[in-house]
Design brief:
The protein is mainly α. The protein has a single domain, classed as Orthogonal Bundle (Arc Repressor Mutant, subunit A), CATH 1.10.10.10. A 3-stranded antiparallel beta sheet has the order 1-3-2. The termini are far apart.
Length: 121
Amino acid sequence: MTRARHDPHSYLPLKAVDFHVLLVLTGHELHGYGIVKEIESRSGGRLRLEPGNLYRYIRRLVQEGMIEAAARRPAADALQERRRYYRVTSFGRQVLAAEASRMRSLAAAAEADLAVAGDDG
């Protein structure tokens, strides 16, 4: 399937790991291990990524234009030459916003259905 890079909706629904990677990189530049730790922290340990798998996801998200390598590394980490930092792109933010909207719609529909079902029982 060919996706139109300019159409964020063509990437929906996002895989859970893609959603979480984009989410933790929104407003932050992180290296791979930092991404893993932040996802674990935000998910309360429910989502754990192996670094080897993470770099496959990162490579794909870079190819799809959703994240990119950051041009500068934080001064506190200047000695860590091997660490590559990543950040979400404008397109990645658009995809993340579209996915969040899709999820809100699903949650609203589920709540409406549950409310109706609750009235029956």
